[in-house]
Amino acid sequence: MRLETERLILRPFEDGDVPALFPLINDADVAATMLSTCYPYSVDEFLAFFKRALEAMERRERYEMAIVLKGTGLPIGAVRFFHISREHLRTELGYWLGRKYWGQGYMTEAVNRMAQFGFEKLGFERMHAYCFTRNAGSIRVLEKAGFRQEGHIRHGVRKNGEFHDVLLYGVIRENFAG
Question: Where in the sequence is the domain holding 40, given as residue range(s)?
C-alpha cells in the first residue's frame, strides 16, 4: 500500500526507517506534542513499538504509515489509524512529525491523504483525534482537514506525572474537507 501527495509518500514502515525516525521521535519537543510518548524514548521502546506496528499492519488491526519526502525518500514522521471499530466504521487518527519539518504543511498533506484513504478505501464513516489544548499546530492541521472540536477533556491525559487537558476533534465522511 502506498499513498501519495504532491510532496509525500505514505507507506507502511520498513526496517530501514528506524535510523531515520528514532532521532526524530526521541526529541523533547516532539514528545511534548504526543499524548503517550515520553522523553527520553529508549531505542528498545521504539523498536518494540515498531515491531508491534508492523505486526498490527499485517493483520490490518492498525494502519501505521511512515511519512516520506518524495524528493529524498527520507522518513520524517508517521500517521496512523488505530482503535479501529469495523462494527461502527470509525477509527482514531494519530500522527507525529520531526521538529525540523514543522510549519511546512507536511502534516496537513499527510492527514488529508490518510483521511481520504480512510473514508474512500477503508469505508470509515467517522474518525477522531486527540491533541493537547496547547498544541496549536495540531489543531490547525485537524481543522484544515474538516475535523471539528467535539470536546474539551479536562485532565484527559497523565504524562510525566502531570495531568493535561486534551481536545477531541472528529469528522464524519460528509464533512471531510480533504
Answer: 3-127
Q: How far apart are CA 144 and CA 133, in angstroms?
A: 17
Structural domain contains residue 172: no
Give DSSP secondary structure letters for 64-83.
EEEEEETTT--EEEEEEEEE
For the chain, the helix, strand and coil percentages under 3-state DSSP, each to the nearest 5: 35, 35, 30
Closest by CA to 3, choosing from 96, 155, 115, 105, is 115
- Looking at the structure of the chain, the number of domains it has is 1
Q: Model-level pTM greater than 0.70?
A: yes
Residue 90 to residue 96: CA distance in whole angstroms: 20
CATH of the domain at 19: 3.40.630.30
Q: Does 86 fall in a domain?
A: yes
Quick: pLDDT tens for 91-121. Answer: 999 999 999 999 999 999 999 999 999 999 9
